[in-house]
Amino acid sequence: MQKEKLEHHGKFGLYRIDDLVELLRVGRSTIYLWVKEGRFPKPVKLSRRVSGWLRSDVHAWLEARKEEIKEENA
């Protein structure tokens, strides 16, 4: 992920969809499916046409997922 891009969004504590695609290495449709299924945090609506995910929510989800993987492999 481009450092400048992350720093820009990092000031506001938000990830945009393209940031998440690059960070998680999954497609946009997968992220939206996970949100719909309740498996991933919901985005925050910034305006009628713009949404973003709170960095804190995404990082908490990653930590929880890391713990799930540890338990699955135990």
Gross morphology is elongated
What's the total helix number? Answer: 4
Look at the structure and give the mean pLDDT. 87
Oligomer: single chain
| CATH fold description | Multidrug-efflux Transporter Regulator, Chain: A, Domain 2
* Structural category: mainly alpha
Name the beta content range. 5-15%
At CATH level 2, the architecture is Orthogonal Bundle
Total E-strand runs: 3
Cα separation of the termini: 32 Å
CATH C-level name: Mainly Alpha
| Rounded Rg | 13 Å
Helix amount: 55-70%
Low-confidence stretches: 1-8
Q: How many structural domains are formed by the residues?
A: 1
Major sheet characteristics = 3 strands, antiparallel
**Order of secondary-structure elements:** HEHHEEH
Report on this model:
With 74 residues, this protein is mostly helical. It has a single domain (3-72), classed as Multidrug-efflux Transporter Regulator, Chain: A, Domain 2 (Orthogonal Bundle), CATH 1.10.1660. The chain contains four helices and three strands, in the order αβααββα. The chain has helices at residues 3-10, 17-24, 28-37, 55-72; strands at residues 14-15, 44-45, 51-54. It has a three-stranded antiparallel sheet. It is elongated and about 45 Å long.
Task: Give me the secondary-structure topology.
Blueprint: H1 3-10, E1 14-15, H2 17-24, H3 28-37, E2 44-45, E3 51-54, H4 55-72
Antiparallel strand pairs: 1-3, 2-3
